[in-house]
Amino acid sequence: MQKALNERIGVRTEGMSEEDKTKWLLNYCRAMSQEMAELTDSVPWKWWAKYQKFDEQNARVEVVDLFHFLISLAQVLGMSADDVFNAYVKKNEVNFKRQDAGYTVKDEHDSKHI
After folding, report:
1. pLDDT in tens, 10-53
2. Distance between CA atoms of 28 and 16, rounded to whole angstroms?
3. Biggest distance spanned by C-alpha atoms of the chain
4. Residues 6 or more apart whose Cβ sits within 8 Å of residue 42
5. For residue 65, which of 36, 27, 26, 44 has the smallest C-alpha distance?
6. In this structure, are residues 95 and 114 in contact, taking their beta carbons and an 8 Å threshold?
7. CB within 10 Å: which end of the chain, N or C, has fewer?
């Protein structure tokens, strides 16, 4: 579905040059930053303002918007849904091992196998 949406707006993630990959990774990261700001605005974060209310419905929509851009990022990197899932499982195992070990030392190499 995301591939079709991206192609509809003129973005073809398959066969991108390194330059185009860089451009679209940055574009999607910037878009995600904006979506994160919109998600933040769904929560009453202004401690000085009494008028704010938690907008759970909007928060859900913003989370879905983030997924759209995350999927696009994965596609730019040539990752399928299975690739993302398998990498998630492996990275989750790494995170649990880090917690089991107390995560007292930064090891840049413990995720290289993912």
Report:
1. 999 999 999 999 999 999 999 999 999 999 999 999 999 999 99
2. 15
3. 51
4. 54, 55, 56, 58, 59, 62
5. 36
6. no
7. N
Question: Exposed, middle or buried: residue 87 (CB in 10 Å: 0-12, 13-18, 19+)?
Answer: middle
Nearest in space to 24 (alpha carbons), one of 9, 4, 37, 39: 9
End-to-end, the C-alpha distance of the chain in Å comes to 26
Predicted confidence (pLDDT) per residue in 47-80, tens digit = 999 999 999 999 999 999 999 999 999 999 999 9
User: To which residue do tokens 């596609």 refer?
Assistant: 75
Q: For the chain, give every domain's residue range.
A: 2-79, 80-114
